[in-house]
Recover the amino acids of this structure.
């Protein structure tokens, strides 16, 4: 009994230390997309759950920075925003280009965003006022991103990727569903009409007002990708 117990404890210890060091997702050649795509798929939930040793904070659930914008006549703010869903993203393609020093990643996911919203002005054609809770459910968001990097040596002479900038496209493909409390100071008739309008026009609303939200989430992920790359040499995660 004692021996089995010790064996199990030491297995748990090995597992803990190993996982704390770096998740093993297989070492691919950087430009081998057929190998890299499933490797990223394996790493995605681990990365999004947070890797404290590599300076990566928990990104699913993500505590979003406050967002405020004034776009096409709509003044909108979101506080205490929480984004869920990144852990379960599907990685569609990963392409590393060593000449251009770019990493392109496409992925898709369902997600939800909750938080305290304040809205005023007009949305598309309708006047709006509201101050309450927002629940936004998003089905099948497609994200295509390109990250540029430089390669720099650390004090031990190991090469690291230093991300320099990124750009992305996004498309909410299947649906966006809005739940908003306290629209029009709680007037039920006006509120029901507005919710119906938002949910019927989800595609146009996503295209017109989605970017500041995606921008905010992407900034947080990018900051963590930079910490990760600073802490991990290219050779630790790939054949280079
Ligand atoms: C009144 C009222 C309500 C009005 C309406 C107004 C309103 C609010 C409208 C909103 C409308 C709407 C529908 C909005 C939708 C908003 C959306 C679509 C939100 C989605 C949020 C989201 C999912 C954002 C992600 C954004 C993004 C571009 C992220 C990418 C960031 C970067 C730079 C990533 C780098 C690549 C990456 C993931 C690296 C991590 C990494 C991994 C995983 C890895 O495995 C690995 O090792 C192999 C690495 O090392 C190389 C990694 O770096």
């Amino acid at each position: 009994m004692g021996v089995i117990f010790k064996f199990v404890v030491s297995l748990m210890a090995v597992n803990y230390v190993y996982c704390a060091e770096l998740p093993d997702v297989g070492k691919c050649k950087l430009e081998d997309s057929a190998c890299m795509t499933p490797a990223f798929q394996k790493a995605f939930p681990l990365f999004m759950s947070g890797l404290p040793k590599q300076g990566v904070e928990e990104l699913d659930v993500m505590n979003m920075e406050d967002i405020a914008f004034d776009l096409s006549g709509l003044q909108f703010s979101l506080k205490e925003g929480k984004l869920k869903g990144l852990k379960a993203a599907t990685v569609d393609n990963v392409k590393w280009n060593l000449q251009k020093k770019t990493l392109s990643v496409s992925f898709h996911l369902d997600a939800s965003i909750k938080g305290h919203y304040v809205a005023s002005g007009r949305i598309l054609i309708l006047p709006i006022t509201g101050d309450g809770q927002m629940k936004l459910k998003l089905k099948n968001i497609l994200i295509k991103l390109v990250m540029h990097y430089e390669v720099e040596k650390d004090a031990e002479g190991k090469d690291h990727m230093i991300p320099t900038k990124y750009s992305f496209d996004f498309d909410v493909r299947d649906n966006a569903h809005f739940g908003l409390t306290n629209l029009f100071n709680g007037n039920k008739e006006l509120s029901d009409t507005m919710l119906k309008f938002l949910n019927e026009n989800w595609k146009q609303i996503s295209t017109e007002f989605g970017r500041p939200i995606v921008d905010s989430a992407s900034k947080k992920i990018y900051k963590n990708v930079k910490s990760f790359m600073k802490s991990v040499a290219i050779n630790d995660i790939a054949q280079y």
